[in-house]
Structure formats: C-alpha cells, structure tokens
Penicillin-binding protein 4B (Insulibacter thermoxylanivorax), 592 residues
Amino acid sequence: MVQRIRRILNILMAFLLGFALLILQLMFLQLFHIGRYVPKRADLAAAAVEQRMQGVVLDEGRGRILDRFGRPLTGFVSLALAVEPRLAAAWSKQHVQEAENLRKLLGMHRAEWHDLLQETVHITLWRRERRPVALTAEQAKQVEFYGPQAGIYAVPYVRRYVEPFYASQLIGYLSQHPSRAREIYGDEIAAGVLREDLKIGASGLERSFEHVLRSRGTARLGIFTDARNRPLAGLNLRIVNTNSRFYPVRIVTTLDLELQARIEQLLDERGVKRASVVLLDPSTADVLVMANRPSFHPEQIDLEAGYWENASLKQQIPGSIFKIAVAAAALEYGVVSPHERFTCLGEYGKYGFSCWKRGGHGKLTLQEAFAQSCNIAFADIAKRLTPERIRTAAERLGLGRRIGWEGKVRGYAGLFRQFDGEEPGQFFAASPIDEGVLIQSAIGQRDVRLTPLQAANMIVTLLQGGRLSSPRIVREVRFNDGSLMMSFSIQRAGSPPLSKRTAKALLAMMQETVHTGTARMLAGHAWSLAGKTGTAELGRQEQGVHHWFVGYGPVHAPKVAAAVVVYDQPAASRNEAAALFAEVMNIVREHG
C-alpha cells in the first residue's frame, strides 16, 4: 500500500516538474529568445489585435512625396464610403426612400448599391475599377448624417496616385518584384517581417528613395470578431493606426507643383506627342519642372511602350546646342581670335558635310557663326581643337556624365543617386577619331549624346560664371512629426570651372542668337530671352529630327534655365522647341 502511494506521488511530482519546466521554457523563450521564433521588431500586441480584426486598409503607410511648398505629389487623402453590408441592408429595407435618395446623391448605380449590400464581409469600401470612390463634401455630410445606424461611414482614405498624375515619370510607380525585394530586404523577409511579394518602388523617386519610403505601419478600418468570425459586442467599428511619430516620412522635393501642372497642361493643349521640358533654378540648379509627354498611368503600366521612362534623363542626339561646348573649347584654348572671320560657302567639300543654309553664310565672326548656327565655321573651329580639348570643355559644362545629385546617405550602402535611370551621355564612341568624326561631332551629330537635364544644367553653369553644380530633385526628408531625417545640400562639382570670361562670352552669343540669329522668333517676347537652337538629325530624312532649345530669361535677372526638346519632327520644319520655349517662358512670367 505504501509503495503504491509512493509511486503515485513520484508520478505526480514528475508531472508537476515537467509542467514547471515547460512553463519556464515558455517564459525563457518569450523573454529572451523571442527573436528566434517571432519576426524581429514584431509587436505581439498588434499581432493579436490584427488576428481579431476584420477590415480594410485605409492607408498603406508608405512615405509621402511633396513639392517644395508641401503640396502632395503622392499620398492624396480623400473621404471614401465604408459600408457594413449587414447593417446597411437592414436599414435600407426599413428606410427605402431615404436609401434611394442617398444612392442618387452618391451617384451610385442600383446594381452597385445592391452588390455592396450583398457583400459577405463585415466591412467594405465602395469602389470603381478597384479603387475607392472619393466623396464630395456634400456626399460625406449626408453619409455622416445617417451614420452607424445605416451602417455607412465617411472615412479618410489615402490613395497613392490621382489623376492627372503630374510629374509621373519623375515620381515613378510601384510593383511587385520578388528578386529585387529579396536583394533590398533579405534579412527582414527571412525573419518574416516583410513578404517578398510586397510592392516596392520600380522607377523614379519611388525607386531611388525606396529605403525611406517603405511602409512601417498601416491605418485600417475594422471590426473585432470572435473565433467564429462574429462581431464582438461593445467593440464598434474603429480605425486602428499602427503608424508612428516617425513614419510615414515626408520627402520634400524641389518641384513647384503649380508650375509643373501649367507646363504639362500647355503640352496637352498644344497636342505635343513627344517632348521634354526641364526648368532649373539658375542660382541652385534645383529642378523646378520636369515634364514629359507622353505621360503614363502609374497604376496601369505598359512596360513595352516605355512611357514610364523619364525622357528628361535619357541621352539623345543634341544637334547644334552642342556648339556651346565647342565654342567654349575654342575660347578656353584660344584657338579663335575675337575679330577673326570665317568663310561659309555652304559646302565643306568632303564627307558630304554642308551647312543648313544653302549657298552659305559668307563671312562671319565666331559670335555670328554661333548665332546663325553655321556648320562650316564650326567645322573649321573643330579642326583647330583636339577631341580631348572638346571633351574637357564639355565636361566642365557638366556633359558626358551623370550630373544629378549623388553622394553618401545614411542607411544607404554605396553611392546614392537621387535621379533613377539617369544616363551619362557621351562624346566620341569610336576610335580613332578622324577629321570626319571630329567635324560631325562638333555640330552635335555622330556619337554625341546629351540628356535634357544636362542641357538645362549647362545653362545654369554659364549663368553661375562657369561653376558647375549638380541638380537636386529632393531637398530633404522629414519624419512624420516634422523633425528632420536627412537633408541634401546644394552640391558644387569639384572639377575645374570654366573661366568667367568664357561663360560671359557664351551668354552674349546666346543673346545674339535671339537678336539676329536662328531664334529671332523670340525677340518680341515680353521678357528679354537668350538661348541656342538645335536640330538633331536621326539618320535618313524620312526618320525626322529632334528639335532642341536651351536658354534662360529674363536676360538681366534670370528666373529659370531651360531645356526644351520636341521629338520626332518632320525634317526642314520650323524649330518647335523654340516656339514651345516662348510659351513656357510666358507661363513662368505669369507665375511670378
């Protein structure tokens, strides 16, 4: 009997000891080794709430992109209609006429209203084409009037992009890209904090600033439910926000949204099919406007069409605007005297090289040759230079390399570049460089390539007396509470500057181009303007040309430096870029 009791006591003690060890193990895991079994930085309380909550996401929590004045370029807040189908269905049966009046006020089709009430979820949003419909102030007021008794609510909803999608290529878009997500967030995906199918920045600022823009929390509208998915009594519909005082961040760009919008509206009004307009602040090289046509819908991407690419950052044949770099080389290396006169008879005599003006320009100085964009004179100048001298002068103007802001940034491995997909351009692609290659390159043909951003920044360099700057598109990043996360200072290039004398002479040549040269159509503008035209031949005549214009205004107190490109124009047509530049400057003048 005693032995039997002893065995029972031993079994009981072993059971209690095992149970105690299990409790201790659980405590140990929860207090000290939770990271091995639960995703790092996971909030267990939030996870428990998430498990009991049924609802819809109102804000994905991705960082916002703003213009220089704080106006949103992404993350637009509007009121959306949230519906509890079960309650709304019951209310509409009891208040048939009121429900009908509400439906009409909302502009909702009967089928839409019927489908909403048939939803089997606890809460849903009224959507069209998969996107929540924005309510007007009057509609929201009426929804709030009926409120919870009718199972309807006006709730704040954050939509990433809204039409007309200004600066769409610059902003970029989001997409699922598992391999790149693993490359960026490998540790967090492995730990279970993030999923590899999350949407990440695929182009533009969305891509280059992905590391600060990504979501760290969400705002959700939901109902708490029990294990059987039934609403818990006493826990009403509520918004649960897991964002913090730090996130989502605010990226403050240098863009002027109002000016950007007016330039894009101008392009649409004129029916321009393919064009780029870049406006820079001449004192800082900050981007004020970067507009392209065609535009694209950031939620409906056609990768093959390529409209999502930022043409302002893509290298193109520049035509005669490259004569600015050749003239700079001639002045810097003293191969042309101020009063020297060149002779243009219209034909060079070999390589099939000729001037655009049949019969030639006759006798003309360097300034006159620049203003008239004389090919023969610039061929003679190029022969006095070497490719290395042309390259050096061009590089001092910011050509032949990625010119956008780049540097070391906290939290980013390697060299950080603000502009996604910026191309470097080039001068001479082949070697050896014979006379034919040299003179064709001197007029911006052959292998010469520039981006519109480089072209606009070249004008900024001249206006700053030859000092080269790197254009910025982002000025700073701020936390959710407004405190500073990081800033991007104005960046001056370390390379030797162009001489002030040369910069001043080139600006005078650009003024002469408007007074007497190829840009005479701008002479009657309300502002005094200066600039240089360019016509880039694409190959065979039937392929057409690109029209370029680079310039600034007003001459005595410049407000902007500009590059305008109108692509794919008929050969032998008037320079559409110069005409567009005139209208752009009208908008800048009115904008103040």
